[in-house]
């Protein structure tokens, strides 16, 4: 009688035979899964032309041969076979931990494939696999350690340098003339996020391209970062240094890093290019702080825009100019701080912030042109339709900011040009649009703007709405500057100034109710321009002003500004450019300093409490006719007379362009005879007037 429990007792399994059968039938699968695990564990790259599986397949072939020919002796012999693998991994710049992960991955793959294939994993087979792989790992580690110790003894100085380079925060990469990467310190791998051992010793176009793809490398603007964008590649092409190239990478463990890279060519004694050294520096913290600065500056720009886009009249021009002056001082300090930050870190992503500052400065300049209290008009041919479009863009934010916005329909008939001042005419249209906004109130509505030419040679501009018509008394007092009815206390002043302006141009401004009692309209009538002779005569009357009068190189610069932050930052930036800079916080102090020591150039703030920059320039011109003098201001200078403008060689608008300022101070010769050097009023540069 059979014993039941004996029927369920498993027969003993020969682990050698079981493992041999597995490898004979599944060797390729084992090698493939093993290589895949290695890549996942050590971030190893499978690069075209570099077969990661070849050494693994060789070790599996030897194991199959030993299991077949020597049986259980394979447990002793195979570890000796794989001993050389440790030395090979050392040459490939693997770490000891990477070698341990590699054999751990082999153990997991063998156990997994055996269990998957047979449906179960016998204890005898599992024990044999663990013991076999463990002995092989110990043998490979011994070889790895022996080579490492030999190398450390033989090249102790190199090992010490390697240790130092391992712990510094800057990664260093060496590239040969053909683009081959011959050396990379461990920090390069840490900063990029994947090991660089696959790149060392290979052509960068292939291996480095795989690295950049794996970490999703890109420029700060979002464009993919290519191998050709690497500073060392550019330095090899251009035979010169490349500084401050920024690259954003995604770390395998999550998160992004901003890296700054620079490259310096290495020259042989004969003057031949030997290669390039490239450095990697982590600028992630600086990039995050810059983003916060960009956000804060954007909020400032929006606040400034809302302030300066509010309606201004001639009577309020001085208030607008003063506000612009204060804001421009703040913007100037911000730009100079950005300049210093760029020189410390050289990150290209700050260029966008600097560009935004320039755009804000241009906005300030446009609004100053719009609002400035001019001493005299600049009459020229003004295209009516183009001016209406510009005015609508300036007023759009005010028209649309309420819960119920005001929409504008344009019906422009291309009437041509009128003889007027361009800034005042644009201001006129904006004021009429904002008057309609006040009239429509919180309910909003639609405004229709029409332009056309009338048969009698006049240009008609109508701005109409569909609100309640004006009463007779309202229309009588509409243009009374002392009318201070609740709701729009500045409206009557605005319209009174506008009507006076239109009358000086030979036209008229009126208000009328639409027929049928469906709204009202402002009507502007101006003579059609018939020629541009006045503008040509005015242009012909502008004679050239005197150019720079000096012949020596500028080194000593006096900065005169009553604002301490502006003066200090200007001096700091110019000092880094190599100039010998002194600061004076008033005109009187500046004149005393000039007497004690003559300077090559002076940068003068236009508005100061004791002496204006123009007055200081007049005194300095008497004392040093050849000195370079420039006005630095946030104000509009077109109201200055020609005698004042002739005193200085340039006018720089705040926020100032440091590059243009350096170009100006770096002049070493006077302009050729007959050239029109002299004052300029560019927002961020200087040019002949």
From TrEMBL:
Gene3D superfamilies: 1.10.287.130, 3.40.50.2300, Histidine kinase-like ATPase, C-terminal domain, PAS domain. PROSITE patterns: HIS_KIN, PAS, RESPONSE_REGULATORY. The keyword Phosphoprotein applies. Residues 556-669 form the Response regulatory domain. It holds the Pfam family Response_reg. Residues 157-201 form the PAS domain. Residues 322-530 form the Histidine kinase domain. Keywords: Phosphoprotein. CDD domains: REC_OmpR (cd17574). The keyword Transferase does not apply. Residues 663-689 are annotated as: Disordered. The modification 4-aspartylphosphate is found at residue 605. InterPro entries: CheY-like_superfamily, HATPase_C_sf, HATPase_dom, His_kinase_dom, PAS, PAS-like_dom_sf, Sig_transdc_resp-reg_receiver. PANTHER family: HYBRID SIGNAL TRANSDUCTION HISTIDINE KINASE C, TWO-COMPONENT HISTIDINE KINASE. This is Response regulator. The lineage of its organism: Bacteria, Pseudomonadati, Myxococcota, Myxococcia, Myxococcales.
């Amino acid at each position: 009688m059979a014993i039941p429990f004996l029927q369920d007792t498993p027969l003993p399994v020969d682990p050698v035979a079981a493992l041999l059968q597995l490898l004979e039938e599944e060797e390729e699968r084992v090698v493939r899964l093993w290589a895949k695990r290695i890549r996942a564990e050590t971030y190893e790259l499978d690069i075209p032309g570099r077969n990661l599986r070849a050494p693994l397949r060789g070790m599996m072939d030897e194991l199959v041969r030993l299991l077949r020919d020597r049986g259980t002796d394979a447990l002793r012999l195979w570890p000796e076979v794989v001993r050389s693998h440790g030395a090979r991994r050392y040459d490939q710049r693997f770490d000891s931990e990477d070698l341990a992960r590699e054999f751990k991955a082999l153990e997991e793959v063998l156990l997994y494939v055996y269990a998957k294939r047979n449906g179960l994993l016998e204890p005898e087979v599992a024990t044999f696999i663990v013991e076999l792989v463990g002995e092989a790992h110990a043998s490979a580690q011994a070889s790895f350690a022996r080579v490492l110790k030999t190398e450390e003894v033989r090249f102790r100085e190199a090992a010490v340098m390697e240790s130092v380079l391992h712990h510094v925060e800057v990664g260093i990469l060496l590239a040969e003339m053909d683009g081959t990467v011959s050396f990379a310190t461990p920090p390069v791998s840490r900063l990029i996020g994947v090991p660089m051992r696959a790149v060392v010793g290979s052509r960068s176009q292939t291996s480095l391209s795989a690295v950049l793809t794996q970490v999703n490398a890109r420029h700060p603007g979002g464009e993919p970062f290519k191998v050709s964008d690497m500073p060392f590649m550019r330095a090899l092409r251009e035979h010169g240094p490349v500084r401050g190239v920024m690259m954003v990478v995604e770390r395998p463990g999550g998160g992004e890093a901003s890296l700054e890279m620079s490259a310096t060519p290495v020259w042989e004694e004969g003057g031949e290019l030997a290669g390039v050294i490239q450095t990697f520096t982590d600028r992630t913290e600086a990039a995050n702080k810059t983003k916060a600065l960009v956000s804060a500056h954007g909020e400032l720009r929006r606040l400034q825009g809302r302030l300066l886009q509010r309606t201004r009249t001639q009577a309020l021009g001085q208030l607008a100019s003063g506000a612009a002056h204060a804001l421009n001082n703040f913007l100037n300090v911000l730009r100079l701080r950005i300049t210093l930050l760029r020189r410390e870190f050289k990150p290209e992503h700050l260029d966008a912030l600097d560009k935004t500052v320039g755009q804000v400065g241009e906005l300030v300049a446009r609004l100053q042109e719009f609002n400035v209290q001019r001493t005299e008009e600049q009459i020229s041919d003004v295209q009516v339709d183009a001016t209406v479009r510009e005015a609508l863009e300036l007023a759009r934010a005010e028209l649309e900011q309420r819960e119920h916005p005001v929409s504008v329909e344009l019906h422009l008939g291309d009437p041509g040009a009128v003889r007027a001042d361009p800034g005042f005419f644009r201001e006129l249209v904006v004021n009429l649009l904002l008057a309609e906004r006040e009239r429509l109130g919180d309910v909003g509505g639609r405004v229709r703007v029409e332009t056309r030419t009338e048969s009698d040679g006049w240009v008609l501009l109508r701005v109409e709405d569909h609100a309640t018509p004006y009463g007779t008394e309202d229309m009588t007092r509409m243009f009374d500057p002392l009318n201070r009815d609740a709701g729009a206390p500045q409206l009557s002043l605005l319209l009174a100034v506008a009507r006076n302006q239109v009358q000086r141009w030979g036209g008229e401004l009126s208000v009328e109710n639409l027929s049928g009692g469906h709204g009202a309209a402002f009507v502007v009538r101006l003579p059609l321009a018939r020629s541009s002779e006045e503008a040509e005569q005015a242009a012909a009357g502008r004679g050239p002003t005197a150019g720079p009068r000096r012949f020596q190189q500028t080194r000593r610069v006096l900065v005169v500004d009553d604002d301490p932050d502006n003066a200090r930052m200007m001096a700091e930036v110019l000092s880094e450019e190599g100039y010998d800079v002194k600061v004076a916080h008033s005109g009187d102090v500046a004149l005393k300093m000039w007497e004690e020591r003559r300077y090559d150039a002076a940068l003068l703030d236009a508005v100061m409490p004791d002496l204006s920059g123009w007055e200081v320039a007049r005194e300095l011109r008497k004392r040093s006719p050849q000195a370079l003098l420039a006005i630095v201001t946030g104000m509009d200078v077109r109201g200055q007379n020609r005698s004042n403008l002739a005193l200085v060689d340039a006018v720089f608008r705040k926020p100032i362009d440091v590059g243009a300022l350096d170009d100006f101070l770096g002049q070493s010769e006077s302009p050729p005879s007959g050239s029109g050097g002299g004052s300029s009023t560019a927002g961020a540069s200087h040019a002949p007037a």
